[in-house]
Design goal:
- With about 110 residues, this protein is of the alpha+beta class.
- The protein has 4 helices and 3 strands.
- Helix 3 (about 60-75) packs antiparallel against helix 4 (about 85-110).
- It is globular.
- The mean pLDDT is about 90.
Length: about 110
């Protein structure tokens, strides 16, 4: 079972984050800071393609990766722990990045 396998590796399963049959896991550093987030989904998931091309876009564009990283840090600033507020706080930057990633992905597939 995926959930048990991830738990034995030190990941926390977030049952409340179960959109589109997605499984969401996190692992925190000893300091309590988020170390890694893992989204697991099937190819049939309507969100799968956008996650993959966004990942690939950030890997290919370090300046955009840094912009996204800064937006994420800013969204969590002030001790923010509410996931919905976190998402809202980074939405403007994320929306632009997703659009640029989509355009980039489309051009690379031509």
């Amino acid at each position: 079972d995926l959930i048990e396998q991830m738990k034995t590796r030190g990941y926390n399963f977030h049952e409340s984050f179960n959109q589109f049959n997605e499984r969401y896991f996190t692992r925190d550093a000893d300091s309590g800071e988020r170390f890694v987030s893992v989204h697991v989904m099937t190819h049939e998931n309507p969100q799968a393609a956008s996650h993959v091309y966004f990942r690939d876009y950030l890997r290919s564009h370090p300046e955009e990766r840094d912009l996204y990283g800064a937006a994420k840090l800013k969204a969590w600033s002030g001790g923010q722990t509410d996931r919905v507020a976190y998402s809202v706080n980074k939405k403007e930057v994320l929306t632009g990045l997703l659009e640029r990633a989509r355009v980039w992905y489309t051009k690379t597939r031509e």
